[in-house]
Structures are given as structure tokens and as C-alpha cells.
Q: What sequence folds into this?
């Protein structure tokens, strides 16, 4: 995918729990909130945090730029995306983010194309080391940026900021080592996607079953993955769902058996989706529009 | 203090990030929300969680029972407390809980008298072991309950539920050991008040400086502590602020030097509060109503 690369727009702040509802509420009240002169007062945070909330709002696809008003009013307006309304709306799935499934969905939406968090996409898709340091990510990332975005000039310090933010966002004990007076631990550490190895500055991806990642959400993202890929296939192999760029297997760091079991259990009695195994080739087939099936699965998850 | 002892009313759920704003919003819309037949639908959670949100709302002193309406309508109504309005109101200090100071204040309000979390109060005030297991707390607690509340019958299982909830609430890595499919880590683990020792089931209090606990909040709780004690003294020794039941030193697990430095820095140029050292007796003196001084300090913290 040829996303426009985006670096270090988070102003070094990782996303915080309150920011999802805060940016939903703020933009619902005023689509031009972020460009208002008194934005710091209305949002009750410093100038850099205003920018960070705005960035994360769009990166997580809660917000979308509304181009119509931007021309008329000569400033960028924002609207709430369909995902934003579904998740955080008054009768939304989980506006107060009480269900860990919502964090998994937010992680999924952050990474899915078009992705505004280039280093995140790189880390989860292109960086395959078993054990690594922050410096290891940096060197691989530097190479990746130079080969994938040859026309883009990006400072080392920006890449390092992004890597630090990825680690602070996903590694549970990363914050405790640092003196961060104004920081609250990042909600996404609950996903246990990257773990620290002992007390050293080494990390590794945590492959396998995630206790707080529901089967129906895994199946929904499989279908959303196909829908988002844009081709009209009505079948996909489990291998693709495990190893392809931006696949659920890749973004959730699943193993084959975990993915298989989750998909099987997620399907349950649903006749519209079939898991078949023909001489070792395991495939997921479906009869209806995968985006609608995915949407149904997510709605059912929150309805139960 | 002779609080009515309260056990296991949390329905085994620890408080979650979203619940503070959720219960504020819900009660603002309908003071009888918790006794409505469709409470599960409106709040979007199961029946036990409705009870848990209601309990935590009152335990953290965000909500208060409104007795006037309860008689007329034959059901308990709830109002938002002054603290609830100050913290979570539309122009409140920190309605989306972005500042770790808010978690410290919530911890403070949970424990301060009258306290509806008996086991929490016991754990932070009466349990002084250097290193302990869940069972150690249980045995001390059992004795404490029998001597302090001889007329109260409480099941071992209720005490154990409370102890588990305390540990899940404050110990960072406690959740990871358990298979909790529906759980998100508790925000209060960020306070680092109780730590796990190695991989064993042993814990200890984390005495000393807390990086995300601001000096002005420590000073404010010192003054609030005196105000809440109810006597009209205009001076208190640092020793009392460190070792007394429900003192900031006790509830925040501070050491003498950390408390001294925090109070000194918290005072800054404020002429209304004086820290004096007379032949080793360090005292905090103040000229105005300590509850107003505390309130001013907190407001200034969030204004900066």
C-alpha cells in the first residue's frame, strides 16, 4: 500500500484512555475545535497535547477531515467517522471503553489502511526479529524508510520518537523505568503484544493466544481484512490471514492454531461463514459481503 | 472512626477507567438510574456490573445518596457529590482522567472517612508487614474484623474477594497471572503502591517517592486530612501526617524525607502555609481554613 508516510505527529504523547471520548465529545460540539484559538482552554490541555489528540483521533480513524467545510471556512474541520460513531456514540458499542475488545478494535483501526502511523505499521508488519532492542528497530526502520519512501526526508530523531512511542504504547513495564511525571500508563499495554525480556532493554513480540481478545473480534477482523483489501474474493486461506501484511495474524501476533481455533469458535452456528480444510489447505469462505458480516459480528459481540 | 463496615460490594469487579465518567453521566441524566428495570440496557453492562458501578461511585464519593427523593419515590436516588462535580463536571478539573493526580485524588477520596471500602482502609492503615502474601492479609484482616466489628458476621469468602480486588486494583502484574477474559487493567496500578516481589505470590508496599504524585496534591491532602479530622487545630506535626491513620503518609506510602520535600515544594511562595522546624519537631501551620486551602491548591494544580 502506498500510504503517505507519517512520522512523529503524536508530539511524544501516547494515546490515553480519556482521549477517545474527549475527542469524540469535542468534535461533536465543534468540528473546528482543533484550530480554535482557545482550543487549549476548551480541551483543558497544553498546545502540544491538542495536536496529539487531533493526531490520534485521525490515526485511530475516530475522526475524519471534512473537506467541504475546510474550503469555505479556510480551516480544517473534523467529523466523526462511522467507526467513531459506532464505537463512541451515545448508544455506541462501548463509549467508555470498558470492554478490552474495544482496545483490540482500536489497535486494528490504527493499523488498517490507510494508515497514518507509519512506524507502527512497520513494526507490526515488517520487523520480524525474535528479540530486539529499540536500536534494532531503528536500524531496520531507517533502511525501510529509505527504500520505501526515497523522496521523504525524515530526521533520525523523528524515527526515534516514534519507536519510543510504540514501546511506551505496547510494553507494559516500559513506563516504570522512566520518570514521567505527567503520564498515565497506556491502555494498549493491556493487549500484551510486545513484552520486555527480564530487566534488560530487550523486547520480543508475544505470539499466541491473548486472553482478552475475543474469538468473534478475531473473525470480524479477518472479514474486515478481506473487505479492506478490495478484491471480490469470497474465500481466503488461513495462511494469508496469518502472514499477510496487516492481516489479523500479523497485527495481533497470533499463531496458526490460535487463529484456527478463534475462527472456528467465532463462526459457531453462523451458516454464512464456512471454515474448510481440503488436504491441508484451510480456507475461510463466506457468501455475503464481508464488511457486513464483520459489522454483524462486532455488533453481536457488544449486544451479548 | 466508626464507619459501618462494608465488604465485597464490588461484585468482584475492580473499578475501570470508563466507570467514573459513565456513572457521572448516567446519574446526571437520571438519579434513579441504578434502580431502573432497564439499568443494564441503559448502562450497557450486566446486572452485576450495574451494582459494581453503583458501589464504586459511592465508595469513591463521586455519588451520594439523595435521601429526599428516596422517600417520595420509594427508591434510592443518587446525586453527584461536590467532589464528583469538581472532578468530572463539564468544566471540571479532569473529567477524562488524563492527569495521574486525579487517580491519586480518587484513591484519597476512596480511603478518607467515612470509608465504604473497609478492607482497603485496613490494608493501607492497619497492615504493616514488610512482605506479605494474600493469605497474610487474610489472617490479619480476620482478626481485625473480629475485634473491631464484633457484631458483624462476614464470610471468609467475602474477605477473600475484597483482598483479591485490592491486589488486582493496585498490583501492576497481578492481572497477567490470571485468565480474565473480560478485564482491562485497573488504572490504579499506575500509582505503584503495592508491588509484586519477583514471580512469587509475595507483595510489599512501595514506600518512597512516587513520580506521578505531584507535590501540590500531597500538600492538599495534608490540609484535607486536618480538615476532615474535624478539630480546629491550626498546626500539625509532620509525624502525624506520616504515621496517623488515613494520613497522606499512610495512604500514599511516603517516607519522611519525601513528605517533607513535597510539603516544602508544595508551599512554594504561599504565605498562608508555613513549614517550621523547631528542635527537630517539624510542623505544618496555616492561617486559613484548611479545607479552603486544600481546595485552592487542587484548583491551582489543574489550572496550570
A:
Amino acid at each position: 500500500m502506498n500510504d503517505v508516510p507519517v512520522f512523529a505527529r503524536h508530539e511524544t504523547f501516547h494515546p490515553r484512555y480519556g482521549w477517545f471520548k474527549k475527542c469524540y465529545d469535542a468534535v461533536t460540539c465543534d468540528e473546528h475545535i482543533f484550530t480554535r484559538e482557545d482550543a487549549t482552554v476548551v480541551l483543558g490541555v497544553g498546545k502540544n497535547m491538542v495536536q496529539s489528540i487531533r493526531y490520534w483521533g485521525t490515526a485511530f480513524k475516530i475522526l475524519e477531515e471534512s473537506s467541504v467545510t475546510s474550503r469555505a471556512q479556510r480551516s480544517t474541520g473534523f467529523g466523526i467517522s462511522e467507526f467513531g460513531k459506532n464505537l463512541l456514540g451515545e448508544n455506541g458499542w462501548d463509549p467508555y471503553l470498558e470492554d478490552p475488545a474495544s482496545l483490540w478494535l482500536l489497535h486494528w483501526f490504527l493499523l488498517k489502511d490507510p494508515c497514518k502511523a507509519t512506524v507502527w505499521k512497520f513494526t507490526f508488519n515488517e520487523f520480524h526479529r525474535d528479540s530486539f532492542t529499540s536500536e534494532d528497530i531503528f536500524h531496520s526502520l531507517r533502511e525501510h524508510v529509505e527504500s520505501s519512501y526515497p523522496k521523504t526526508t525524515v530526521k533520525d530523531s523523528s524515527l526515534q520518537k516514534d519507536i519510543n512511542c510504540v514501546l511506551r504504547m505496547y510494553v507494559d513495564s516500559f513506563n516504570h523505568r522512566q520518570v514521567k511525571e505527567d503520564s498515565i500508563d497506556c491502555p494498549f499495554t493491556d493487549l500484551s503484544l510486545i513484552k520486555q525480556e527480564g530487566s534488560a532493554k530487550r523486547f520480543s513480540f508475544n505470539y499466541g493466544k491473548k486472553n482478552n481478545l475475543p474469538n468473534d473480534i478475531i473473525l470480524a477482523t479477518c472479514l474486515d481484512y478481506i473487505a479492506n483489501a478490495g478484491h471480490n474474493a469470497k474465500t481466503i486461506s488461513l495462511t494469508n490471514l496469518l502472514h499477510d501484511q496487516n492481516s489479523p495474524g500479523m497485527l495481533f501476533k497470533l499463531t496458526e492454531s490460535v487463529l484456527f481455533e478463534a475462527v472456528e469458535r467465532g463462526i459457531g452456528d453462523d451458516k454464512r461463514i464456512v471454515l474448510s480444510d481440503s488436504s491441508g489447505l484451510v480456507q475461510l469462505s463466506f457468501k455475503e459481503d464481508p464488511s457486513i458480516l464483520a459489522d454483524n459480528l462486532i455488533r453481536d459481540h457488544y449486544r451479548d
